[in-house]
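Bug report (template v2)

What were you trying to do?
Predict the complex of my protein with calcium ion.

What happened?
Run completed; filing so the output is reviewed.

Input:
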Amino acid sequence: MQVLVVEDDKRIADALTEALQRFGHEVDWVASGSEALEAAGNTEFMLLDLGLPDLDGQEVCRRVREQSAVPIIAVTARAEELDRVLMLQAGADDYLIKPYSMRELLARIDAVARRVQSPAAVPTESSETSTEERCVFGPLSLDLRTRQVEVDGELVKLTRREFDLLAALLSDAGAVRRREDLINEVWDPNWHGSTRTLDVHVGSLRSKLGGRDWIQSVRGVGFRLVLPE
Ligand code: CA
């Protein structure tokens, strides 16, 4: 895989490059956020250090997401919960806290790459099945094939995770989906992050859909997608 390492510390970048190459990856290295934005279109995977000299890592992440779905693992030395949640909201697929082991990094890269390339996430293109890829619930319409969401015919821009969460809720609209099941489906069964991440994504989905009534919380159990009054 072609990996873009965004890291302003040359020693760390050199060590990463060497290790990734040893495991068969091709590595490009840039040391700033602006270079990362330029190179984002030409890479298959991005390892993004958040402490960069020019741009805030979150900003880099958001701007890459505007133009590309390239998988991003954010790497941070700032361990506060807020940063991680904001990074996931900004469109990062996963994050690592420094210091991390090379083994952990490689495992995360594999897990993210698998998830992104999984057949479930990329339904096959076929005109026969295309109607089944479109889920409609009242004014809400979600197309699994194009990953587009509309409310009342207006396109709603969602991050990949927000889309997956909405698709999971929509797969059994009206029923309560358990928190654990949502985390397993949308994140990954080995997700070690805080379950607060789920609440944060529910919050951002509600605001993007235009109201908190769309997603009801069922305390201690999970969430239910309902038609707003
Ligand atoms: Ca740095």
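What did the reviewer find?
Residues 8-9, 49, 51 surround calcium ion (CB under 6 Å). Helices lie at 10-22, 33-39, 57-67, 81-90, 102-117, 160-170, 179-186, 196-209.
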